[in-house]
Design goal:
Largest interface: A-B, 67 and 67 residues
Shape of chain A: elongated
Distance between the termini of chain A: 56 Å
CATH class of the largest domain in chain A: Alpha Beta
Order of helices and strands of chain A: EHEHEHEHHEHEEHEHEHHHHHH
Strand order of the largest sheet of chain A: 3-2-1-4-5-6
Structural class of chain A: alpha/beta
Helix content of chain A: 55-70%
Number of strands of chain A: 9
Oligomer: homotetramer
C-alpha cells in the first residue's frame, strides 16, 4: 500500500514517522523541505511537489494547517488530478465543513474516495501513536485504511459516511475546549474581582470538579500568566471557534456560546494576543473588568 | 462546643449526621420536622424554631436552600438576635454575594463572627465526609471551626478574610458547571445538525478531552435524554448562573458567557424545563435548531 | 383634590410646578430642601417628611430616582401607613417590575389604589407639559387622575389594569434606547476599523435611515466624543437595561440583546465611564477593538 | 459615456431606467431576459452575456444580488478581462468587505478603476432617483462618475479612497437595521410577557422615541403579524448581519450585538422563517419566550 503524505508539521511529522516505522512505503512532501529530509533518513521517498508525492499512491494522507493550505495543496497543487481512480484520500487536518463538502464533491467526480479523519491529541500523543481518530466516509474506504489508523491512534471513532460529519465533530470538540478556556477566564476574573487570587480559584476547580487535562493545561497557564511560548495559538483557537459557528450556520444550528466566545477572540487579537497561547483569552476577561 | 444546625435538606442531613457521629452536641432545626426526628434518633436535640436551636450555641451552621430561606431563617427568624457575642456562624449554603455582604455587616454589629463555607460535592460525598469546603472569614474564627470542617470535608480551601470571597468562588464554580453543560448542549446540537448521534459525540468528548465527572454525569444524561428525576434542577442551576452574573456586576466584572447561558436558562424555563435536570439545557439548544 | 408630591429632581420639579400652575393644591417633599423652597414660592406647601406630605392627600405622586429611593420613601418613610383608604398613589418613576408588584400588594392591603405612570420625555418636555405618560392600574383610579395626566403630558397611553404593565413597557422602551446606542457604537467602531471617520458614519445614519431624535442626540455625542456633562448617565442607562432583563426573567422572556448590552455597560463602568453620558457606551466598543 | 449595466433586479431596473431617461447610452444584461426587454423598449441595447455588455464600456455598473452573483458575473463571466484600461467599474451591490478587497486587487492589476457605491433606499426611492449613495474609491474616478450618481440619487456620501470603506459603511447600516428589528422584537416580547398587546407597545415606541421610517415599517409588520409577502427577506437581513460581523472580524472589531443577532437569524431560519419579511425576527423572540 503506497502512501503519499502531505504536510509534515508538528503533528504530521510524527504521524508519518510512525507509518514508516510500521513498514509502510511513504512518499512525503512538505512546504519547507527540512522535515522531508528527516523522513528520508528514516526511509521515506521525498517529493518535490504535492503532485509528485501523490503520483501512483494508493492512499493519500494530508495533514495541512488550514483550509487555505489544504486548498492550495490539494486543489491548486493538482493532487486531485494526479490520484488514480480507486485511490483514497484521508484528510486528517482540521478544516471547515464547507471545504469538506467541496472536497467530497470534487473527489467523487474523479472516482477517488474521500475520508475525513481529524484527530484529538497533541504532539506527544501523536508520537506515541495514541491519537483519537475521528473518522467519516464510505465504509469500505474506512475499512481499507483502518490498519493505518491503528498505527496512528489508540482508537478510531466513526461518525458516519459523509466526511463532513467528522469535521463537524472535531469542530464541536474544539469549540468545547474554547468554551472551557473562556469559562475559566471569566470565573478567574470573577474571583479576582473579589480579591481572590485567580491561581487559587483555578487550583480549586482543576483539582475538583474539572480535573481533566484540558482544564489543567490551560488553567495552569492562566494561573501562572504564562502565555508564551504558545502551545496552541489563540488565533488558531479563535479560527476553530469560528469554523464551529459557521458549521452551525450551514446546518441551521445556532451556537450562542460560540458567538460569545468568538467576540472574545476577536477582541484578544485586537489587543495583540493572537500569537500567544490560547489560555491568553483570560487577558480579555481581565481587561474587560478594567484590569491589566 | 455546642453546635446549632439549621437546614437538614439533602446535603444538611448527612453533614449534621457526621458531626453527631464525631461526638459533637448538635441542636437541630428544619422547616419540615421529619429529618429532625432522624437526627434526634442519633442523639441530636431537636428544636422547634431556628432561634431555639441557636440559643446558647458556640457555633451555628446553616445549610439553607437559597437567599430567601437564609434570610427568613437567620434574619426574620431572630437567630442573629439569639446568638451570643463570640459565637460563630458558618453559612455553608450557596447564597448571593449581596446577601453575604449584608450578613457580614449584621453579624459584625452584634459581635458574632461570620464565616462563609459553601461546599463542592453531592450527597454521597457529603455522607462520606469528603466535601471540598470553600471558606472565607476571619482567620481566628476559621481556625476555631477547622475541626468541624475536618469532619465534614476532605479539604478546606481558604480564600480570604471576607466571607463574600468564598461565595464568589462557589458561584464561579457553579457558573463553570453551567458553561460545561451549555457547551456540551451546543456541541451535541451541532453534531446532530450533521446527523451524528449526539450520544456518539458525547461519548467521544467525555472519554477523551473532557474525562471529568461533571461532563460524564451531565453528558450521560444528555446522551440518554434522561432528564427526570432531576439530580440538580435546571432552575437552580439557572439561579446560580444568575447569581454569578450579579456577583460579577457588583465587582464590575462582565461575564459574557454567564449572560449567554442565563438567556438559555430563561428560555428553558419558559418551555417548562425548569424542574428537569440541569442537563435538560440541551433541549433548548435542540429547540433553537428547530428540533424537538 | 389635595396632591402630595414626593421627589423634586430634574423631572419632578417641573412636573409639580405644572400642577401648581394648573391650580392644584400641592404639598411637596424632597430629600434635599432647595427645590421645595422653589415650589413654596409658587404656592405649594412644603413638608418636612414624606409622611407629612402624604397626610390627608387624595393623590400621592412619587417621582423618585430608583427602587431604593422609592422603597426608602414610600415603605420605610411610612407614607403608605399615612395615606387614607380611597387615596390614589401614582408612581411616575422608573422602577423594577418586582417593586411594582410588591407595592401593588402593599397598597391593596391598605385600601389605597396604586397606579404606575412612568413617562417618556426629558426636562424640556416635562416643562412644556408634553410628556408621554405610560399608565397602568385600576380603570377607575386612572379615570380619576386623568385630569392630572392632562396637565403633565400630551398623551396618556394605558397598558392595562396591573401597574407592573406600565413599568414593563417603560423598561422595554429604555432597553430599546440602550440597544440603539449600542448599535450605533458598534456600527461606528466598524466604520472606524476601516478608517472611516465615525462622525461621517453617524452623520449618514442619523440623516437617513435613523432620523429619529434618540439617534441624533446620542449619535451626535458619539460623533463629537462629547460625553460630559452627562444628559443621562451611562450607569443609569445600564441599570434600566438590567431592570428590563430582570423583568424579562420574571416573565420567562429571554432578552438576548439586553444581556449583551448589559455586559457592555458593566465593562464601561469598570473603565470609569459610568458617570459619563449614556453615549459613552461607544468608548467600550472602541476599546474592545483595541482603540482609545 | 458608454454605460454597461449588469443586474436588473428590483433595484437595478429602475436605476438603469433613470440613466437611460437622462440620456446615457446603456448596454444592459440580466440573468433572466425579461427586464432586459423592458429596458430595450426604452432605448437600451440588450446584451446576451455580461462580457458582451461590458465590451467597449466607459463605465460598468453592477447591481447584483450578493457575493456569489457578483463573483459569477464579474470574475467568472470574464467581464473584467473585457473592460479596457481606463474604464471604471461601479459596484452598487451589497457585497462583503472581503470581496471588495479581492475585486480592488483584480481591477488594479488590469488598470480598471474600481468604485464601491452601495445604496440606501427601497424601490420607490430608486425609481425617484432619490437614493443615498455610499461611495468609496479613487477621487478621480468618483469625480468622473458623479454625474451618474446625480441621476440615481439625492446625495452621494464619500467615505474614502478604498472601495471596501463604502461596503463597511453599508454593512454597518444594515446591521443597525437588524439591531432595530431585534430590539423591537425583544421589547415587544417583554410587553407580551406582561399581557400588554405588542401592537400597543410598538404603537408607542414608533410614535414617540423611535419615530423613524425603519421602525415604523418593521414595527408595523410585527404589530400586525404581517410577514408575507416579504419586503426584505429575513434570510437576506441575516446575511448582511453576518457580513457586518465578518467585516468586523477582518478589522479586529468585535461586534457583540451583531453576533447575538446572527444567532437569532440562524434560529429563525431553522424554524422556517427565512423567506418571510425581516420583521419575522419577532417570531423568534416570541418562540424563545414559549409563545407561538
Amino acid at each position: 500500500m503506497q502512501i503519499a503524505f502531505l504536510g509534515l508539521g508538528t503533528m504530521g511529522l510524527p504521524m508519518a514517522t510512525n507509518l514508516i516505522k510500521a513498514g509502510y512505503p511513504v512518499r512525503a512532501w512538505n512546504r519547507s523541505p527540512s522535515p522531508v529530509s528527516r523522513l528520508v533518513e528514516l526511509g521515506a521517498h521525498g517529493a518535490a511537489s504535492p503532485a509528485e508525492a501523490a503520483q501512483g499512491a494508493d492512499v493519500l494522507i494530508t495533514m495541512l494547517a488550514d483550509d487555505a493550505a489544504t486548498r492550495d495543496t490539494v486543489i491548486d497543487g493538482k493532487v486531485l488530478d494526479t490520484l488514480g481512480k480507486g485511490a483514497i484520500h484521508i484528510n486528517m487536518g482540521t478544516v471547515s465543513v464547507a471545504l469538506a463538502r467541496e472536497l467530497a464533491t470534487l473527489h467523487a467526480a474523479r472516482g477517488v474516495a474521500y475520508v475525513a479523519a481529524p484527530v484529538l491529541g497533541r504532539v506527544n500523543v501523536a508520537e506515541a501513536g495514541q491519537l483519537n481518530i475521528l473518522a467519516a466516509g464510505h465504509a469500505q474506504a474506512l475499512s481499507t485504511v483502518q490498519p493505518l489508523f491503528d498505527v496512528l491512534g489508540q482508537k478510531t471513532w466513526v461518525f458516519g459516511d459523509k466526511p463532513e460529519q467528522a469535521n463537524a465533530v472535531k469542530l464541536g470538540v474544539n469549540f468545547m475546549i474554547g468554551a472551557a478556556i473562556g469559562a475559566m477566564s471569566e470565573g478567574a476574573a470573577l474571583a479576582q474581582g473579589y480579591d481572590v487570587d485567580p491561581a487559587a480559584f483555578l487550583d480549586l476547580v482543576t483539582a475538583t470538579v474539572f480535573a481533566a487535562p484540558v482544564y489543567k493545561i490551560y488553567g495552569g497557564a492562566i494561573a501562572e500568566n504564562r502565555f508564551e511560548p504558545a502551545g496552541f495559538k489563540l488565533a488558531l483557537g479563535g479560527k476553530d471557534v469560528r469554523l464551529a459557528m459557521e458549521a452551525g450556520e450551514l446546518a441551521n444550528v445556532p451556537m450562542t456560546l460560540a458567538s460569545t466566545l468568538r467576540d472574545a477572540h476577536t477582541e484578544a487579537i485586537a489587543h495583540g494576543d493572537g500569537q500567544k497561547d490560547w489560555a491568553a483569552l483570560a487577558l480579555t476577561a481581565q481587561r474587560r473588568a478594567g484590569r491589566g
